[in-house]
Amino acid sequence: MKISFSLRRTAVVVGVVAAALSASRPAAAGPAETAFTDAWAKVTSYTTTIVVHETNGKDTQDRTYHYAYLKPHFARIDVVEGPGKGGGAVWTGGDTVRGHQGGFLSGIQLTVSIHDSRAVSLRGDTLLRASFQSVADDLKASSNVTESAGTVEGQAVDVLTAPLASADTEGVTKHVIYLSKTTHLPVQRTTYAGDQAVKNERFTDVNTSANLKESDF
Q1: Is residue 5 assigned to a domain?
Q2: What is the pTM of this model?
Q3: Which distant-in-sequence residues (6+ apart) come within 8 Å of 100 by Cβ?
Q4: Which residues of the chain have pLDDT under 50?
Q5: Residue 117 is part of a domain; what is its CATH number?
Q6: Mapping DSSP to helix (H, G, I), strand (E, B) and coil, where does residue 216 land?
């Protein structure tokens, strides 16, 4: 089949394609996002306390976790307050986690899928979702990150709003990430489904000098 275009028509088509490519190409990172990327690149391991409030339909869940992360594929999460207190899980790469439930079952060690109902949060988030790497992934997934200034509990922060091009399978449409102006690392992340905040994570006691080793997991 032979296809031919006039010079004018070709120019129009090229212009349309160029515009489409431009629209789909992520914009250059702003200064706050760049500062976070640089700061995160220097972190080898860290620990933090995460206070989480999340909703799923009419259900709500409030938990406090202790979290440890060692690049590139080691993570540990322990429930210190809320439903499942005393439970925890460890990830050392792959698609399984090793862990235990809280309460009288705390002595029973299990190895299950990372997506097992016993190993995820109310909204089905795995322990990897709690990592700062997932914050970096959220920013990369958005082609229209905007930056502004704000405060979280009196602390000056950079506020990065990262909408998704379309809602994901859980209905999430955007993430709002609050970065410390001092460390440039996350102090809070709020996840939205439309106009509703469905998950809020507050990161405190961040220790990037933990010097974690593989044996800690």
Answers
A1: no
A2: 0.85
A3: 87, 88, 106, 107, 108, 109, 110
A4: 1-25, 104
A5: 2.50.20.10
A6: helix
